[in-house]
Amino acid sequence: MITFTINGQTHKFSGDPTTPVLWYLRDELQLTGTKFGCGMAQCGACTVHIDGIAQRSCVLPVAAVSGKKITTIEGLSQDGDHPVQKAWIEHKVPQCGYCQCGQMMQAASLLAKNPTPSDDEIVSAMSGNICRCGTYPRIHKAIKSAANAMAGVQYFVPDSTGEKA
Amino acid sequence: MSRYFDLTRRSFLKSTAAAGALVLGTCFVGSAPRAMAGVLAKPSDTAKAANLFVSLRPNGIVEITCHRSEMGQQVRTAIAQIVADEMEASWDMVKVIQAKGDPKYGDQNTDGSRSIRFNMQRLREMGASVRYMMQHAAAARWEVKPNTCVAEQHKVSHESGKTLSYQELINDALAIVPPEADKLKLKSRKEWRYINTGMAHIDLNDIVTGKATFAADVIEPKALVASIERPPVVGGMIKSFDSAAAKAVQGVVDVIEIPAPKGAPQFQPKGGVAVIASNTWAAMQGRKKLNATWDDGPNGDYNSDDFKAQLLETVNQTQTHVREKGDAVAVLASTSDKLIADYYIPHLAQAPIEPPCATAMYYKDRVDIWAATQNPQADMETVGAMVGIEKEKINVHVTLLGGAFGRKSKPDFSAEAAYLSMKTGKPVRVQWTREDDIQHGFYHAVSAQHVEASLDEKGNIDAYLHRTAFSPIAAIFQQGAKAPFSFELDLGFTDNPINTPNMKLERGEAPAKARIGWMRSVSNIFHAFAVQSFINEAAHKAGIDAKDYLLQAIGPDRVIDVTSQNAEYGNYWGDKSVYPLDTGRLRHVIEKVANMATWGRELPKGRGLGIAAHRSFLTYVATVVEVEVSDSGELNIIKSWVAIDAGTVVNTDTVINQTQGGSIYGITTAISDGITFDKGRVQQTNFNNYQVPRMSDVPLDIEVAIIPSEEAPAGVGEPATPVYAPALCNAIFAACGKRIRQLPIGDQLKA
């Protein structure tokens, strides 16, 4: 039995421990905001936070998250009002939208660790996330705008409580 | 989760017909130029006769049906903008319902950048009909003249100051018959409040909170999951597989063979073996145990290096006539100093970020499908043929599409799901992996082109000869076809805008040893690459500035009718009186973009500006790219500028977003190694070896100018793509003097 929390709730898992977290979230919990894009950590559509840090859930076996705190897009904020989500709306970033949950989880993790990233640091942190619609210029702008909004504000991220968020 | 679907619509029709909702449809009969609006007082009885709906519910909510597929181009928003604007609906009362596949809507094939131009007029008429009914219903209630009443933002006001809300008028409005479409008064442009604005798209909040429903997110019904091992070579047949080993994997419930396709590929599944499991992971694990072996068949010899040589040989010989003016062959034969260039672009995969996915439930007399499809009516046909049920009984619910770019116009994945549901008796979701998407697609055609020209003493193109050869899309519809459909040549080849007294265009033949399909902007990609690169080469030869020469090559403002030069031309289904090939509009975007980029400015060493312009999908686009190429051959795309003239536009922000995204999509052509074959098999597998642009590959500043226009609406989703690669390669030439004639760029800059 493997125990961990997802968006603040405790879950116990007794299936195949090699099952990637992605498929457990999607198939068992119907948390479908986390997307399947490549299955080999190449595109970032499946990005979630593990103890506050962005990771690719498509290659992360459930066995590896024992005792960890998982946050998905559904748990990033109560009402879709995380500064990153607000910035995504402000800049009308999405086109099809499929990759955007992964992009936002990656961006939120970046900003939690580095609240004032340079342009190059944003590019470096985000280049593992593919957007086939090509919304990169808007993603970049939205992250800068979220960083500005967060500056000086102690933002509460539920699953990184106690972290250096 | 079903709220995007027509299910809601059906229950709504039932539940509210008695409650006095106003439901309006337009009848679109045959080729009638105008829609006729009419009230459906009993919508559940007459719904079949109407094909587009706007409904006003008793609580004031306006439900607008979107019959085109949403794949990021914001068509759901655009359709709502058009109807709600003419209807004078309050935007916060608008909901969009996604239509299922049904010929009653007319064409639903969401490709060819045509949703707006095919539908804007009838959508406006429908909205205006509701506004008319509201205005006249209020006038009747108040016993005043209709022209003393104004319908605005969900209510009607009389000049005396009294008002009635739209919802208060529903029952009265049911008695009002709006005039026929051509007698309706539509709003003037300056009265528009939603159309031609950049309002945010209607699904934005759902997307940023993870609630948006894509194909794999349909959780009702709870389906079994299938992962399918397909023949690696088109036309290959299964020889053996280990069913028992797959079934031994925990969670696997069945292993089912899918029959090989018959005749031309069309949109049929490739065949293969499906592993069905209670969850996705188990299905994928079971599939790895199949150990399938194959008979490859006649396409097992497909090798991209050999095929490239064959295509280049083809275009270096006389081929079949496409268009001719003057006598280019004679002029070129008498010229010693010719400019000659061959161009080549490999296959590409659309690679939408959401891999193909569909869920199906088979019943004896019908099939329900939930799919990320661009063309639900094609699903009806393909699925119907696969399971032996008439297409009218295939209910196709269209989810949001996580990108599509042409791939999801081919519903092989829906047919797989329906077949497996029929065989198991259970709902089945077919989940394609990225490897499946890269290796079993409908690929952008591999192409080669040969261009030669002679220039006069002023640098004008005196004679121009261009041959194209590529594996045609025609071959997926006609087994063994080697000649392209005329529409494949229309895209950037037949409509060449170069001003020259002598022009000869020819097309060669090439077999298709893979499944060929359209990809965003289709054959415009390689045709624009050749034409716009060649003009740049000619500019260099003539010693004239690239932008000035581009304008010179296009020549004076005029309308070109290529059919007067012994050519067939479909003009993207557009009437040539409404959508002429107007070189003045092409000149305008070139001048505009040059101005935006401050063309001609001094640049540091290693930097260069490149320009290209192209008309596709009836829209005119010019792009300037600024690059830096280091001494060691590292390429950095610094910035891009794009001017786009798409006629009347509905959502300005969408046009900007699509133009930025379409430009970045064009970078794929330049940086990806493409899709290559050996022994009939695709050699790429996933994003590690099929490169697509990442944030680090693209300019973060892509400045877009929309040319203000009252011309008829044209395409937006595709036209920014074909012009990008030539603009980029022209910039590379300006920066370092290296001419890229073959894509991808690869290590050509390092040599």
Q: Could you characterize the architecture of this molecule?
A:
The complex is a heterodimer of chains A (165) and B (751). With 165 residues, chain A is an alpha+beta fold. Helix content of chain A is 32%, strand content 13%. Chain A has helices at 21-28, 83-90, 100-113, 119-126, 136-150; strands at residues 2-6, 9-13, 47-50, 53-56, 69-71. Chain A is globular. Mean pLDDT of chain A is 93; it is low at 160-165. With 751 residues, chain B is of the alpha+beta class. A seven-stranded mixed beta sheet of chain B has the order 11-12-9-19-16-17-18, sandwiched between helices. In chain B, helix 17 runs antiparallel to helix 18 (583-596). The longest helix of chain B is centred in the N-terminal third of the chain and has 28 residues, at 115-142. Chain B starts with 5 loop residues before the first helix and ends in a 15-residue tail after the last helix. In chain B, 59% of the residues are buried. Mean pLDDT of chain B is 92; it is low at 1-19 and 27-51.
Number of helices of chain A: 5
In terms of DSSP E residues, the strand content of chain B is 15-25%
Largest sheet of chain A: 5 strands, mixed
Shape of chain B: globular
Strand order of the largest sheet of chain A: 2-1-5-3-4
Point out poorly predicted stretches of chain B.
1-19, 27-51
- Based on CA atoms alone, the radius of gyration of chain A comes out at 15 Å
What's the main sheet of chain B like?
7 strands, mixed
The SSE order of chain A reads: EEHEEEHHHH
Helix content of chain A: 25-40%
Helix content of chain B: 25-40%
Structural category of chain A: alpha+beta
Taking pLDDT < 50 over at least 5 consecutive residues as the criterion, the unreliable ranges of chain A are: 160-165
How many distinct beta strands of chain A? 5
